[in-house]
Amino acid sequence: MHQSSFMPEEDMLYTILADLKRTSREYTTAVTEASCPVVRQMFTDLTNSTLKLQGDLYYLMDQLNMYSASSPVLKQEINKQLQQNQQNMQKTQQFLQQKQGQQHGMDNHSNTYASFQAQHNQQDHHGHSYM
């Protein structure tokens, strides 16, 4: 008897779905680690198209009763997680602003030091100023 595929359709769809999930995670990691804007955009586009394909496949499998979704998450739990993520984002933004402010302060300090050096270099070794 002739078999049309080497594995049952449902198993193949599960395998593809798992690969799409893994691929979207890897693309997301690539987005967060890319320093080149063009590469970052490319991986963002790949992530988005992979997530769409994964969602379409999940929807199809759900319609064919091939995939049973996990139990629904309580709205309270989602709101709690969302609030924690927002707090983490605020802390991260504050940290970045603080570090950028320190860097700006160091830049000002460097400028002050450079100005001092320039004034010092305009004086001769006897302390006479040529300003």
From TrEMBL:
The lineage of its organism: Bacteria, Bacillati, Bacillota, Bacilli, Bacillales. Residues 84-103 have a biased composition (Low complexity). This is Coat F domain-containing protein. It comes from the Bacteria. Residues 84-110 are annotated as: Disordered.
